[in-house]
Design brief:
binds ligand ISJ
Length: 121
């Protein structure tokens, strides 16, 4: 069993609380499913939102999505001029037998355009 880091991101259409809740839940769900994980194997998750997203804490959304006993933290992504708007990102540390090469990073919706270099299944 090793500790691995998994990245993910998604994009919402507007800074709307329901969209933050729903898109973050989808991101958490896909991260767990694509990597064969349960919440018991998640050590911690840091979530960021671009500065234009203030309607809800992504960490709250992740807890509501099932990570209820996982340490979570929300933070703001830096405001790089011209960067993609309304993006919620996550970095999860997990315990898994997956090798680093087997880990599936999860880029959903418009955020898929951020990392076209990553293999996605
Ligand atoms: C490209 C992304 O956005 C930014 C760039 C990153 C990178 O180059 O690794 C990571 C997070 C963000 O600061 C991303 O989320 O993957």
């Amino acid at each position: 069993m090793a500790v691995r880091a998994i990245r993910g991101a998604t994009q919402i259409d507007a800074d709307d609380r329901d969209q933050v809740l729903e898109a973050t839940a989808e991101l958490v769900r896909e991260l767990l499913a694509r990597n064969g994980l349960t919440s018991d194997e998640v050590i911690s998750v840091i979530l960021t939102a671009t500065p234009d997203v203030v309607s809800e804490f992504p960490a709250y959304a992740a807890r509501k999505a099932g990570l209820d006993d996982v340490p979570l933290l929300s933070a703001t992504e830096i405001a790089v001029p011209g960067a993609m708007p309304r993006v919620i990102r996550l970095m999860a540390h997990v315990e898994t037998d997956l090798t680093r090469a087997e880990v599936r990073h999860v880029y959903l919706r418009g955020a898929a355009a951020l990392r076209t270099d990553l293999k996605q299944l």
